[in-house]
Amino acid sequence: MKVGFVNIFGKPNAGKSTLLNALMGEKLAIVSSKVQTTRHRIKGIVTTDAYQIIFSDTPGIIEPKYKLHEKMMQAVRGSLEDADVGLLLVAVNENLTENDAIFSSLKLKVPCIVVLNKTDKFSADKLTETRQFFESKPYCSKTIAISALKKENLEELLTGITELLPEGEPFFAEDEMTDLSERFFVGEMIREKVFDLFEDEIPYQTTVLVHEFKQKSSLLKIGANIIVQRETQKAIIIGEGGKMIKKIGSEARKDIEKFVGQKIFLELFVKVRPKWRENDIFLKEYGY
Predict the structure, then answer these.
(1) CB of 28 within 8 A of CB of 21?
(2) Over the stretch 129-148, which tens digit does the pLDDT of each residue have?
């Protein structure tokens, strides 16, 4: 069978997490209209009789501004090393020259498919122009146009990927979907609600640490800390009379119960950790 690691690269908001979720048929990566939502490298495993593909969603490629960004870019560099195929994702409306500079700088030594995303929003002429631009580049093995959001043309993409993969033995069991824990995804689902419900810098100065994850008779008890940098941010997250933290908990609980397949008791706290994004000890504790 065909087996290999297929890593997804691109600028923030190109649609990498949406593409991973579409290919998996499950929601593994959190999605937001805000940039830089993905902070970790998230693997999703798809196994059929013909292939096993280990997809990897990486943080959007940025110029690091603080230590958290540096950790995110380390995840990108790590995914350069084990890729068998690279998916270079570009939204058709993006600056082509900027994307070309990013893709060239990766210096990938494996076959790469330039995936033209969000094609449902643009004209045939724009699509042809974008395709011709990338097909002339040395890193491009082929171009495939898709809409990750509408799940259009994913079969062609999967076929294109498997044609480039080596033959081998599976790395993971047939029923495994990811190498990350349920606890990790629970934290991400809570963090997604912070991105959904708050504007400006709040989501970027916030992270989530799940400190309790225990089965209690018929309930799964989950305790999590929402980490912020300042007391003023804590007040905003909690909201007047606890209104906002209750909303975060209510919305996150629906997603988590669907994910774990049972009722949960979710308890949220807000903790202030000044400059946690610059602190190596905090970053390690929070999984970065």
Answers:
(1) yes
(2) 999 999 999 999 999 999 99
DSSP letters for 36-66: ----S-EEEEEE-SSEEEEEEE-PPP----S
Q: Which residue has the tokens 């805000």?
A: 34
Does domain 182-285 bear CATH number 3.30.300.20? Answer: yes
3.40.50.720, 3.30.70.660, 3.40.50.300, 3.40.30.10: CATH of 2-164: 3.40.50.300
Model confidence, pTM: 0.75
DSSP 3-state assignment of 227?
strand
Report H helices in 55-153: 67-81, 96-106, 124-135
CB atoms within 10 A of CB 24: 17
- Residues 11-57: tens digit of each pLDDT: 877 888 889 889 988 777 766 555 556 656 678 899 999 999 999 87
262: amino acid identity, one letter: Q
Please say whether the beta carbons of 79 and 56 come within 8 A. yes
